[in-house]
User: Fold this.
Amino acid sequence: MSLERRATMAALLAGRGDDLLVVPGLGSTTWDAMAAGDNDRNFYLWGAMGGAAMIGLGLALAQPKRHVAVITGDGEMLMGLGSLATIGIQQPRNLAIIVFDNGVYGETGMQPSHTQGGVDLIGVAEACGIKTCLDIRDQNGLDDLARRLKNVRETLFARVVIAADEPPRVLPLRDGVALKERFRAAISVKP
Amino acid sequence: MSTQAHNWPDRLFDTLKRGGIRQVGYVPDAGHARLIERCRGDEEIRDVALTTEEEGVALAAGAWLGGERAVLLMQSSGLGNCINMLSLARTCRFPLLMLITMRGEWEEFNPWQVPMGSIVDPVLKLCDAEVYRVQQPDEVVGAVERAVQHVFGGEHIGAVILSQELIGKKVWTK
Assistant:
């Protein structure tokens, strides 16, 4: 039993408020977020593999009154595993790290990732001291996570088990400067 | 050296405060020890200890997305850990200010520090960073002020290199 990635992203972002800022990780989760509906408050990543969670941390610390959701894949998270330790020390109350875990590197030809071999991202996040760690495997769990995302109150980590499929890519804007500028304008930060 | 010469880390801290820095990412480093101590003791500054320097490049990008200025402290060896992540700053024009303490260039006891230390300048130039090299204590404040203006005024990458001669050599036997 596993969830379908596009429906999962759509469920997480359905009815999102203006106070939810989203950092989708390099690769499939960026296409998923775009497929769920383009939004100026998404900062899509076309690179910076391993950096999604830390971009989320910097953003969450700078914007304590808004909620920040990093939504990335297992391969991207594995490349920045140390950032879970860093986030475990910081514990920003408004940051959620959500990992779509299908056990494969989808963008490069479905090669197995360490999670398929038994590496447990929930165990890592718990060991790093992240307060709320959720293992999401079905629709009920997903509905609960979507509710929590509306009002993140303490650092949250969720591993969402998704099917290893490859829906057609839905590509967002690639211009990094434009993505940055529209994000900053959307939340009215000063230059 | 006079007290004035020895307290350059405190004057560097004051310069960062005047420059509006709110997040400081770092991997613990002897050369930056006093500066890190000041940052940890300041209520307005969020100090973020990192497991590897590349985390700090991403942290600074997130900070700027949210309207805050960050600085990344590292030793010369840490620059090598950052190279691919610097693509984030270059592609998106995120301001990135790095303060780099040098190893491997002057009275270095540990030869393992030399390979990375010897290529810091060319690596920074290849990554489009403006480089401000500091040899003497009285040059620190001016260099950091110029770097802050360049980096945050124009959304550029800048690196202040604090030379090993300035930092002083590491004592290996006590």
